[in-house]
Amino acid sequence: MRVAVIGAGPSGLVTLKYLLAAEHTLGTPAVEARLFESEDGLVSSKQLTSFSDFRVNNNNDESDFLSTKRYVQYLNDYCTHFKLWPHINLCNVVTSLKTKTRDHHNSSSGGGDGIYHHVLTYLSKDSGEHHTWECDAVAICSGLHVEPSIPRLEGIGRVPLALHSSQFKSRAQFGVGKTVLVLGSGETSSDVAFLAVTAPTRRVVVCHRDGFHLAPKTNPNPELIFSRRRKVAKKPQVPIDVSRASLFDTAYVHPWLRNSFVLWRYYDLYLRWILWVSWGTTHGCDQWIGGKPEGWTASENALLTAHSLTHSLNLVFFNKAGHKVSPYMSAAWRPKAPRMLLARLRALMVVSYDAGDIGGRRIDVAPWPEHIDEDGVVHFRDNGRPEYLAMKDQKIKPDVVVFCTGYKQTLPFLRHRQQQHGSTAADDAEDYNYSYKESSNPTSSSSLSFLDVISGGTANGLVRNIWPPSDPTLAFIGFVRPNLGAIPPLAELQAMLWVSRLLISSSASSSSSSSSSSLPLKKLHPSDEPHYRLTSRKGARIRYGVDHESYAYQLALDMGAAPGLGDVLRIASSSGGGGELGDPDSDYKGEKPQQIFWRRLCRVIRDFEWRLPLTWALGANFNTKFRLCGPWKWDGAREVMLGELWETVARREVFFGHFTLSILPILIFGPLSLFVFLVASLSDLACRLVGIQTQEERRRASGDKLGVFDRGMAQSTLNGYAP
């Protein structure tokens, strides 16, 4: 089989790695894989950002968070370690990707039935020549950050310097004594605003559309006045994206509870509570202005799904860079003394937060601008909020405007088919069984936007946000946005799922294959997708958001790689991570059965690695957890779980870590999930007694069979995507 990978970012590299490793791991025929990258080089917290079987060096002096330079070095080391360089073609721009029907008998491999065949055309920057490469499957890993998204702003030409964040390189671009206007309220906006306020600028203003949430970088750990004086910690609190326990959060959760969003409600309440205890505000990390409006979830419900009333976290992308700018934003809004009685009581119990010395500097927060007049003065929208009242009469004349407004997701190499063959976008969609939508930006007529597809339901979207239902040979790896966490680990799980299904199904259906893999393929069903999707407003730019923990666990379930309690206990009891309990019978020759039993029991207790089940239960859904078993089982996973990942779990504080984010949710949702399971079982029994179909039978009749538990959570048996 020949497979092309487009893009040499983290998603492309990890996809290439699993394609090359499949022969040894899955027992499938060897894959001829090529990666095409237009640039001349490779382009979150390290526990989540690093891949499952190649960890960041655990130096004691290294932070939990990697710099850009350090991460690029990590990716280069990854390519060297797994010998990917010979398969990477740099300075090759993919200009066209076509699909055509080929003869079943002449198919060398491919998507199982020999229907799909891809022709990739690329331009070599070195020679200036076009080349073609035919392949059986294509993984598009070009990423979400492709074409800058610049909204229309009347009068922007009256500003001396306007640029997109992708064009911003250093503080020097701000100049000296200038007024900087930053449009956007995401992580990039926070980074740019921080650089601006710490540069010799005159004024910095950040504009938002409808509020934002500044999240803490690490799990909050407020200090109570009556508690003992804390020792200086060797390491800071754990990153917030690895703070959740997985047991009864994703593992062993009944589908009714999983789909009810009760878990979202708990974390929503917890977040508001911990923010208030830590900083006295529920808007965000020391955030006293610009937060989401009161009742914002309910007010937007007309544009959202019905369950939005019960939670709000699944509507929020956490701005983990916000901790840098919150002291500057809140300087003018933070109350000097508590006003309400409850706030005064809190002040008596919690040590006051120290925002540090900001040198009298501050960042102004303003609504989104309506236009810039002839004099270059910005006029803001009236959103009825305090920041508008504070800014409406001020004369803001920016010298520099930075658009931190994200990117549009485009596939310019697919448009080439239309230009060459005169087909329409609808024709291309029919060829790829994929719904295209013309870009709304008239200046981008040469590219296609696929936002509706990667964010839509299964009727016109992608199976598990990866491949079109009718064409498993075309994959989109890394086209998701986690609310908390990082894209690279999700891209790794996507690659693992797609590669295993592609190669195993192809190997099983190919009569010429001499080494067909015996690994089973689970059937996938759309009903297992809504629970991990983030809700978005109609017309929102980002509609491909997922909950990191839920999505990662679902992909692991689909692969049969989510370890259950029995798997973890077996691995923890064996010295090598995969052996049987106890010792060989030859070690007990001549001994009585009772003696053998007690000796084996003592050996099991002595060798039992209790850290492994604790890391499995209390830790987040690290990718390494899903390498303990399943098709991509890795012998080193056990040691990583017992070492680096156990240290991450053990580093949590007792009350504001283990208790609030592990023990308490387990105590609440464990019994609740058991209760729901009993109710569902009794409901099925009652249906059988009165002679009506049970929910399971109705699902089976409609082609949507759902087993209750499979390796730890409700798992579909997956025949929903069959034509």
Task: Describe this protein's structure.
- Belongs to the FMO family.
- The chain crosses the membrane at residues 655-680.
- It holds the Pfam family FMO-like.
- This protein is an alpha/beta fold and 723 residues long.
- The chain has a domain at 2-146 and 464-521: FAD/NAD(P)-binding domain, CATH 3.50.50.
- It has 21 helices and 23 strands.
- The strands form 8 sheets. Strands 3-2-1-7-19 form a 5-stranded parallel β-sheet, covered by helices on one side. It has a 5-stranded parallel β-sheet with strand order 9-15-10-11-12. A 3-stranded antiparallel β-sheet has the order 4-5-6.
- Strand 5 (116-124) and strand 6 (130-135) form a beta hairpin.
- Helix 6 packs antiparallel against helix 20, helix 16 packs antiparallel against helix 18 and helix 18 crosses helix 19 (637-650).
- Mean pLDDT is 78; it is low at 43-48, 104-115, 295-311, 417-449, 456-460, 511-516, 577-582 and 703-723.
Looking at CATH, the homologous superfamily of the domain at 2-146 and 464-521 is FAD/NAD(P)-binding domain
CATH architecture of the domain at 2-146 and 464-521: 3-Layer(bba) Sandwich
Q: Indicate the structural class.
A: alpha/beta
Strand order of the largest sheet: 3-2-1-7-19
Oligomerization: single chain
Summed up, the helix count is 21
Intertermini distance: 24 Å
Main sheet attributes: strand count, strand direction, barrel closure: 5 strands, parallel
CATH class of the domain at 2-146 and 464-521: Alpha Beta
CA-atom Rg in angstroms: 27 Å
In one word, what is the shape?
A: globular
Which consecutive residue ranges, at least 5 long each, have pLDDT under 50? 43-48, 104-115, 295-311, 417-449, 456-460, 511-516, 577-582, 703-723
**Count of beta strands:** 23
User: Mean pLDDT, as a whole number?
Assistant: 78
Instruction: Give the strand content.
Output: 5-15%
The helix content, as a percent range, equals: 25-40%
